[in-house]
Structure formats: C-alpha cells, structure tokens
Design goal:
The protein is of the alpha+beta class and 297 residues long. The chain is 20% helix and 32% strand.
Length: 297
C-alpha cells in the first residue's frame, strides 16, 4: 500500500488517481498538500523565467574570449570569441556548377600571438560580408565570434555571419614617402604596418592571384608595388574568373594614393616591401602635386 494513500486515491470512490487532483472516475476534487501544489504550478513559471535569464546572459556576456593555443580537440564545436590580426591575404573559392551568382566561400589566417589559425566563411556569410563591405584583409585587427571545429591534427574557425566579425582598419592620416618606406625596412617600418603612400602608376600587371600596381615617387627612381589580391575582386564580383581583368584598374601614368599593410616579398637575401591593399576603396586618385608633396623626405 502507498505511503501517501490519501493523496493517491480518491476520497470519494477510493480508486487510484495518482498525481491527478480530479478523479477521472467520479470527478471528485482531491487537493494535494500545499507544498506539492506549489511545486506543480510554479515549475512552468520558473522554467519560462529560466529561458529569459539564459537569453539575457547570451546577449550580455556572449561567448568566452580565448587564446587560439588553448583550443584543442576537447573544444570541438565550441562557440568562442577571440581577438587577432589577419596574417595573410584573403582567399576566395567560387562555387562550382552554380552559375555566376552561385556565390563562394572565403578563407583567411589569423594570428593572436599564441598561434595561427584558419578562418572559413561559407556562401551565405560570404555574401553578407561582401554586402556589408567587411571583407578582412592582411593587417586588419579583428574580433571574431565563431565556432571552433577540430579535424585531423588541427582545428579551424567557422564564421557564420557578418555580425560575428568586427574589423579595426585604420588608415594613416599622412602619407609616407616611398623612399622612406624602402630605406627603413626592418627599422622604422616592419611587416604588418599600415602605411599610406602616393605615387605615379608605372605599370599594372595581372597574375593568377593578384594585381600588381607599381608606383614611383614621380620625383625619383624609388618604386613600390601595391598588391590587390584577385580574391577581393572575385568575392565582390568585380571579375568573373581568375583570368578576368579588372576594368576599373588604374592605368599607367595615373596619380593615386593607396593604403594597406606592408608585406615582405623576395628572396631571403633580397627582401623588399609591397603594400597589400584590403579593398578597391584603398585606391584613390590624386594629383601630381600631391604625389610630389607626399614624397618629400
């Protein structure tokens, strides 16, 4: 016999009713103890309030901020936040067999000082980044809210939306002379520094992965190359394929001002700087007078 016979059996007909308060046989009301009734009716209310609390925590506290070297296979599928610097050019992969408007995905590498890690962004998120003009570029300081996935011997991050990335891309207010950038490599200027220079376009050359714009100072033989990754143009649908030409590219003889991050190129004993351009908006037409003024040492 049950220890709570009076609460589990109907007081009118004596049949078993369990947790029910209304007997299904004679429809008599069988009230439970006050504490039981309190728990029964407060449980759904507490559950709903708990959902609101979780929603508030998610909005105000978000994902934990971590260092890349702490992410291991035990962190698989973790939602994390990290602050880092983009360590290389953007790579774009067009979707196959989906037509010109089929979209594509992008990849870029980040460095937070503890480790390097690849970040992937698939079709929908890539489209959002292009529309919001938030394509990351070499030298950008970024804050990511992404999902970590571990595969094989390493892991990578998946950026699911343009809202998951904040980009800090600062352009210097004043231009540096081309000669000063070339002469102070490794001293005043180093890899990843953001610079602005003005020059006359000496030549524009297309390669499989980038467009190289060679600038001279218009007053001397000093030259520097500004590099616009083809992936930036492909993701923005400004060229149709890898061999396509950018019709809006500057022409030889144009005077332009460019801004971007310094990258080292060349052989081990013959390193030189190039300027990695983050976007087409980083190229601005200017005048010959401005070029001469910006290149005064």
């Amino acid at each position: 016999m049950s220890q709570n016979y009076e609460e589990t059996h109907c007081k009118a007909c004596g049949r078993y009713v369990g947790a029910l308060e209304v007997c299904p046989f004679c429809r008599s009301f069988n009230p439970k103890r006050p504490i039981v009734r309190l728990i029964k009716y407060l449980t759904p209310i507490i559950s709903v309030l708990g959902l609101f609390v979780l929603h508030y925590i998610g909005l105000n506290y978000g994902n934990p901020e971590v260092k890349l070297d702490t992410l291991t296979k035990r962190s698989n599928f973790a939602q994390i936040t990290t602050a880092a610097v983009v360590n290389g050019p953007l790579r774009y992969y067009a979707a196959t067999n989906k037509g010109e408007d089929g979209g594509g995905s992008i990849e870029f590498e980040i460095d937070d000082g503890t480790a390097l890690m690849l970040v992937r962004c698939y079709d929908d998120a890539t489209r959002e980044l292009v529309e919001a003009k938030k394509l990351p570029a070499f030298g950008d300081k970024v804050k990511l809210r992404a999902s970590f996935q571990y595969k094989g011997k390493g892991g990578f991050l998946i950026l699911g939306s343009e809202k998951g990335i904040d980009i800090d891309r600062k352009t210097p207010e004043t231009a540096s002379p081309i000669k000063a950038v070339n002469d102070n490599a490794g001293d005043k200027f180093k890899r990843g520094d953001i610079v602005k220079v003005s020059g006359r376009v000496d030549s524009v050359a297309n390669s499989k992965y980038e467009i190289n714009i060679t600038l001279d100072s218009a007053t001397s033989e000093n030259q520097i190359t500004a590099v616009l990754p083809l992936s930036v143009l492909q993701a923005s649908k400004l060229v149709k394929d890898e061999s396509g030409e950018w019709t809006a590219a500057p022409r030889a003889g144009d005077f332009i001002t460019v801004s971007g991050a310094l990258e080292l190129r060349g052989r081990k004993d013959d390193k030189h700087f190039v300027i990695m351009l983050p976007a087409v908006e980083s190229i601005v037409k200017t005048s010959e007078e401005t070029v001469k003024k910006d290149n005064i040492m």
